[in-house]
Design a protein that fits this description.
405 residues, four-stranded antiparallel sheet, two-stranded antiparallel sheet, 17 helices, 46% helix
Length: 405
Amino acid sequence: MALAIARIDTATPCDSDACLHTPVYYTIVSGKIKLKFTCFLYIILPMGTILASIISVILGFSAGIGANTAMTDTPDEAAAEFLDALAAGNMQVLQEYADNEYVDFLDDFDSDTAEEMEQAIFNGFSYEIIETAKKNGVAVAKVKVTTPDLSHVMKDFKKSSYDYISHHLYDKDVENKEKLSAKCKKIYAKQLKKESEDGTLENVVFIPMVANIDHSWDMKLSDGLTKTLMGSLKVPGDLREAAVDYLFDKDYIPAYSFDQVQAMDMSKPSGVTVADLKLVTRYKLVGTEEKLWQMEQDYNLNCLFLLGIASHESAYGTSQFHTNNVCGYGYSSYPSINDCLDIVGRVLAKNYLTPGAAYYKGTTIDAVNQTYAADPAWDTKVANKVTYFYEVISENHNKQLEKLK
């Protein structure tokens, strides 16, 4: 005989077994009397008796509080009415039956945004009531629910907020806590709405109900059950704080020494941003920051290395033997400086920094020097530039990070 561990107000069963081992908190209302129970329920049951046993547990708590009054609707009707409200994007029905963080977090958003998020949370919500059981004044419904898959919203929000903050690190709006908080809310809402359209989840849940004084049924929703009904959405808490914490976990930029730069693998990204690059571009290389950053994203090429080459070979673009050829690569002219950086960046990544490639000698600046430039001191000159870039960016970047604490 298959066995299961059943608990009241359970969320999704694990495969064929309902096995949850967390405390359960109940408030059962009878007139003006509220009884609260906290317990652990570990009941070994045959699978076929889970619903009946859940009811027995509720009865054990609610016995003697007058739950035998004739009901005006059935548990099926009450559960369907509740679930229909969710399908219509009605968050108020959750607020009626649940007093937990999964309901309250939308209060932090303006009314229009909150309404849009409610619709997104229950976008495509559907259900099938598999069976219900009742005894006296308690009941439970076994329901299959289909929800949008919102399980990755918080993770993806952190990535999106990281991109925004790191690229606007030196902006006054990022330093301002209220403005950054407002921006983070917009990013979160946008991410939630996007992911509400990308995929779905299917779960089987058990929804406990208790008779109320109005001769109807009250749903009893735990945090876990509410989370499942909301597409496994992780409640964000303070969004600005979450975004800044994520930034701090990965975004300090060291001030590397000359020797460290000389030993550095230039086929690895630097981690700097467009805003950081604007601190170190000069003269005719001003305006190339987006291109330099994009080359790093596309080819895992350290963009400070590419900037170091252009800065050394053309004195920041002011000395060109061929039009817009700021990297001293060949004898070609280019339509623009960005075109030159694009071509030379791709050539470096594919032909000089990839093992087995035609000009590969290693991934350090010294190794590239062996096949890129005739000047034996070329690597020292370029490394000096890169060291300077790291020094300037590190000092300013990390100082700005501290302002966000």
